[in-house]
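Task card 7
Instruction: Convert sequence to structure tokens.
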Amino acid sequence: MSRPLNILFLSSEVEPFAKTGGLADVSSALPHAIKELGHEIRIMMPRYRFISERRFKLHDIIRLKDIPVPVGKNSEIANVKSSFISNLKEKVQVYFLDNATYFGRDGIYQSPIGKKDYKDNDARFIFFCRGVLETLKRLGWQPDIIHCNDWQTGIVPAYIKTIYSTDSFFKPIKTVFTIHNMAYQGSFPSESFEKTGLPKSLFQAEGVEAYGKFNFLKTALYFADSITTVSERYAAEISISDEFGAGLNGLLARRKKDLRGILNGIDYQVWNPATDEFIYRKYDAKSLDAKPDNKRALLSRFHLPFKETTPAAGAISRLVSQKGFDLVLEILEDLMKMNVQFILLGDGEKSIEKHFEALQKKYPQQIGVFFGFDKELAHLIEAGSDLFLMPSKYEPCGLNQMYSMRYGTIPVVRATGGLDDTVEDYSGNGRGTGFKFEKYDSREFLKAIQRALKVFHQPEEWKKLMRNGMARDFSWEHSAKLYVNLYRELLRQ
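Output:
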């Protein structure tokens, strides 16, 4: 029997403490699933000011106080607090790296008021990356693997291979870096590089520089022992195409043997229509007759009329161009003519919000919008919609199409990244779990919705699709086993 592994999981956001998107969900659910397989996994994240000590029972760790962390020519002080995240089976310890100068703010990456990125995000996450390693040393807990996520953790692998490489404590540690989205790279002016304390010789194209700037993501791709991303299709897309690889596809192609796609799972303790406390009426694949009661409840929240035979399409997303909202806006008036109701939950670019606001005023009986995030409403949209729209330009993994299938809500998606890997296109005779379109084009998107509506008006056929989706296994256990296999492979090298 192989020995249990020690893993440190690094993320800039973890549910329920801090969240802007799917990274926070993954950073909570994946560590739980790995812990349930019998391994010792701990999480470390920044302690942002809005994370309440009382609510989350954060406590100080006396020996992890006043840790000096070099940033540029100065030394900043880190204090570490601790708490746990727990599900029904396991508790996972979470360390919070605290520093009022860098993290004593109301936002994670940007000010919530102006929606502008903090100017010192480079220094903030240099401090975090280096602070993690200084904390480990002080703690005396040696992980086998440090699993880094997205650009904010990207210079940890570089530190281990350079500044800390002669330290016997860090020598055996292997690093895994997971790309959740290539578009967010942490690219900063060249002066930022000096704050890292990394050897000056690294600031070149065969190193951490990309297009004249210091790039956190490139640093990770260059130094991590293994690189993963969140679906097989996305792993292929980013190493082949400049569009998906966002200028770093050449490096990814060179590291192809170290790159693999491992699909994200979904947390079935949170997303399960049979036990969901946030929905109006619980149901499962054997009691689909209860689902329309959730549709009625959802529509009533937006003062929209309910009719079981009128299709309701839902969307939950950041309102950014990546998510395909230009396509949604182009066809929304067509959907209104086709007697479809549309419910949107999300926030993002103000220009996109304004367009939806105007359309909601024009079609007050058919469109409901909520700008912001509301956990209860997110669950109700999944349970109450008939269709779920995800026309993404690119989608590394995507979680909402999996939540939708779990809830018997049929996804209409663009065949890209994780959407292509998880949704099986309807092919007649009750086969498939959703509807896909290939080309990023509003007419193609509309045709996919029209195909879906044709089946929606055949209730028995539609129910087969609902049950197909509900029977799919997207549990985290499967993904966690693949990660643990990868960790073991690295440690054998």
